[in-house]
Give the backbone structure.
Amino acid sequence: MSANEYIVNGLADIERAASWILKKSAGYSLIAFYGELGAGKTTLIQEICRQEGVEKQATSPTFALVNEYVSKDNRVIFHFDFYRLEDPEEVFDIGFEEYISSGNRCLMEWPDKIEPFLPEETLRLYIDVLSKISRIIRIEYPA
């Protein structure tokens, strides 16, 4: 296992995994979460938001495409879910360019749906299912 990989062994390990991601993603505002349905993308994002000081529970913005959360210290976090996009160009209808250029943290689920529009500076996080309770998280830094 490399320094850019983390094995999650059950829900009890989510807190440590999110902490690891926050350390590894320091300095990156755009984070794309890749993984099959049920891999744990939303669960991980919920814990990241909690650790970032967001008081309300983060929920998947499957129908709205984007949710906005504000931390206790007034930092804004945008949470995107592109699962239901029919056409990648739809991201421009919600003002995607403004969100990603805002400097605020943008956590994106199903980024493969809009891959051509992801900026070069996007940090990519891959969640692979190892078993019913275990996952491996791999971080790929921009070139």
Observations:
- Residues 14-24 form the longest helix (11 residues).
- The two ends are 21 Å apart (CA to CA).
- The longest strand covers residues 123-129.
